[in-house]
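Try it yourself: sequence plus PRP, in.
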Amino acid sequence: MSLTDPTRPTDVCLNTDLYELTMAQGFWESGLVDSQACFNAFFRENPFDGGYAVACGMGQIADLVENFVFTDEDVEYLAGLEAPGGGPMFKSSFLEYLRNHRLDLTIDAVPEGELVFPREPMVRVMGPVIDCQLIETALLNLVNFQTLVATKCARVVRAAEGHPVSDFGLRRAQGPDGGLAVARASYIAGAASTSNVLAGKIYGIPVFGTHAHSWVMAFPSELDAFRAFAKSSPKNCVLLLDTYDVRQGIKNAITVAKEMEQAGERLAAIRIDSGDLARLSKQTRAAFDEAGLPYVKISVSNDLDEYTIQSLFAQGAPIDSFGVGTKLATCDPQPSLGGVYKLSAIRGGAAEPWTPVIKLSEQAYKRTIPGVQRVLRYYDDAGCPTADMICLEGQPVADPSRMTDILDPFASYELSGTPVELLERVVEHGRRAKEPDGIEAARDRCKGALMRLDPAVARFLNPQAYPVGLEGGLAQLRHDLAHEERAGSSRPTVG
Ligand SMILES: Nc1ncnc2c1ncn2[C@@H]1O[C@H](COP(=O)(O)OP(=O)(O)OP(=O)(O)O)[C@@H](O)[C@H]1O
Ligand SMILES: O=P(O)(O)OC[C@H]1O[C@H](OP(=O)(O)OP(=O)(O)O)[C@H](O)[C@@H]1O
Ligand SMILES: O=C(O)c1cccnc1
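Structure, out:
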């Protein structure tokens, strides 16, 4: 299998759910080629019972849209699909429409690495309804998983209190491209490095590695194994102490560290991968300090997550760095973000005004927010975000100092500070609006945003909800539309 950068995929337009294509055909056949839609991608609950999520994957949207071309091969494949009831699934005239079709979408998104909160649009997609539908699955695939991983990693990095965290997750990740996405999102969220060499090559993320238990087991003795590794990798030597017995491992590593000093080299670190990591790291630190080797760092791994790391520091463990694999790559204990893509406005053609639409639900929290939306994030004088207000694009804000709660229309919040537009244009009529600013910029943005986040929202246990509300006019519109829907008024269609 040859793996290429998934941000520059070749078969991207078939990386979708079949229904997107059958709906596209239906819209096309119904004469709705010119009809336009506005969709928002958002999630309803913060992952991991936390107070925030880290927006991620948005830096790859422009690549996705620009690469979304149905090639002759793609069309040939679709032409060969048979409907279960007999006959071709797609009409040849529709397939001719798709061949070399380009998406005429305009997309705004929360900048990668920025914080994002429930129900506000993290990506807003506008354009022909067919194109909006065609991009749905690939877009959600891109932002849902990376936002989830980035959020998980930000939590792990927070628990590590400035000590480097390396992504060790590839072997446990959900497939090869899942492993790449984990490395990318983790780096944006603050991981120092990854063990994934392909991620290093593609994204320029620093790569890091130690050695496995098999290395020690392959030599006649642990001491032989440590000596051989020190000889072979003298400039990046990290010795794994727990293949047999950590006490003996410490002694052997000290012997090799002394031998390295005589050869003008330095043992960089040791790694412990089992047992009581607090107790063993304390014993290791004491032994190395006593041996005059205070510079040798202690790295640990073994099913770590934000909670075990927090606990290790609470126990006074003198740990310098962490390798975090399974629980990061699989986003334990929440394997999906649950981000959705919902229609919020329609119009018959690009020159017509938008008609807001709403989806009602038995469950009030699932009722959608209508209209073409934008988000104002309010910052206090220290540059810390205090609240987000969802407004209607192109409409004046009735009262910039007050917003209505999303779930409870009778509750409102006072707003103060300076409002700043949260969404930024990433794609304009199918072309990148600007070069994505890259993962280093996203990483810096994430670091700054997390630093400025209210600690009451950032904490793991029972975080305070960050206020997200509706501008007065939007709240009224939502109320009126819900009322009309319940009264059974006729709804406009995209045509
Ligand atoms: N001091 C500690 N406090 C809290 N959790 C810890 C501590 N030390 C290790 N852990 C965590 O406890 C979990 C289980 O560790 P445990 O020592 O039981 O398993 P193990 O060492 O992998 O077992 P085995 O010896 O069979 O390999 C791991 O997730 C590990 O990160
Ligand atoms: O514990 P995680 O957070 O998932 O981190 C990755 C794990 O992968 C390796 O174990 P594995 O048993 O696969 O190989 P090894 O023999 O090299 O330890 C490594 O030693 C870590 O324990
Ligand atoms: O380099 C390591 O120590 C490593 C890499 C991946 C998984 N476990 C350990």
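One thing you can check immediately is this: Residues 274-278, 302-304, 308, 311-312, 315 surround adenosine-5'-triphosphate (ligand 1) (CB under 6 Å).
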